[in-house]
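Margin note from the TA: students keep mixing up input and output lines. Inputs are the sequences; the output is the structure of the whole complex. Example:
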Amino acid sequence: MVYAKRIDGRDWTELRPMSAKVGVIDNAHGSATFSMGKTVAFAAVYGPRELYPKFLQDPKKGLLRCHYNMMPFSGAGERVRPGPSRRSREISLVMANALLPVMDMTQFPNAVVDVFVEFTQTDAGSRCAGICAAALALADAGLTMKDLVTAVAVGKIDDKFVVDLNYEEDSYKEAEAADVPVAVLPNSGKISLLQMDGIIEPEELPKLLELAREATKKIYEVQKKALLKKFEVDVS
Amino acid sequence: MTTLLVKEKDIVVPGQQLATGLDYVPGMGTYREGEYIFAARVGFLQIEGRMLKLIPLAGRYLPKRNDLIIARVIDVSMSYWRLDINSAYSAMLNIKDATSDYVPKGADLTQMLTFGEYIVTKIINVTPQFLIDLTMKDPGLRKLPEGRMLSVSSVKVPRIIGKKGSMVSMIKNATNCQIVVGQNGWIWLYGNDPVKELIACKAIAKIDAEAHTSGLTERIKTFLEKETGAPVEIPREIESMEYEG
């Protein structure tokens, strides 16, 4: 029993403090910011718009293109090298795949919807915060969506199941640790992203997914509140 | 058992449950899955009989046939102009739809319309792949002279025009400006008095921000009266079309 208490003092299934705001970038067609503890994501949606290079155009449906980027100063220690990397390309791809099941891209043949997700600060769980922000920005852009998308990382440290790992837990060295980022469509409970880093037993996965489903319900409430807040107008 | 889970005029988010049971029918911006009707976008709920429908609060312009829009020339070719219509797709204006005059083969089309110029135009055809044809041949369709271009979200255009053009007429009368509102969210505005021109701009920005609230016409009336210092009337029945200056 190495891991008896969480490093930042949270309960095992407690999420970090969250905040969300919609409509933060005026130039974009839709935008949002979502923060989860010290991880802060900004998402801007442009589109549907014309797609170039032309060979990417699909006459049957539009393309959803995600761009994940950590700002150079966003990490905890060393400067993050700017520009695309193997890691950021992978996360861009899994983010697009996590968002696609709720989108109806057949409405925009040959066009593209660009989602830019930038991180000013990261403390693990960035792809999850990015997905939460991107879903809000897509809704803000007025696109047709069957549902929002919520995401959270769950995991196992030593023998404890934990929710929403921070960087210290994510890179825990003293015992066996695994983290499992999960994206859930809040209304149907379907899963659109499931990755894993570390080792868990097969029978432990359903338990972790159950924890993720519970946690994403709380995230959904934060997202919903942020979206509605944008349209509250003080008419006095 | 049919229950409505939200109220009329509520703002709803994608995936939100709107009603259970089979008595309600899903309309624009909603979809049914099993017993439930869900919202498919951010919108403002309207109930028409049994139909639940969402008035969009955001979104880019999707071209529709017979829409009156403002377009900007982005390319000139041998026999047509390509125009930006504030949408995901560009539109084409053919010579034969632009003028009834004889244009000799190989004529320099930039003499008629050149890069960056704005026109009021009408969409005559949209294919399922969004190839868009425009015309300039209807009355009121023309090249726009000097003036101010404003951009608002295209979903708010119906509010800026108002019922039978009442809102835009009220602004025109109060500020003595010429205004052309395109369905694509581009608005051309010209006034002799720069102060009044600015008031018209502010009024349009106010409608853009408060489009989904009720009692808007009254508030714009009060706003115009306060800014211009003269009484403003809300026009009742307007026959003229919104694109006449």
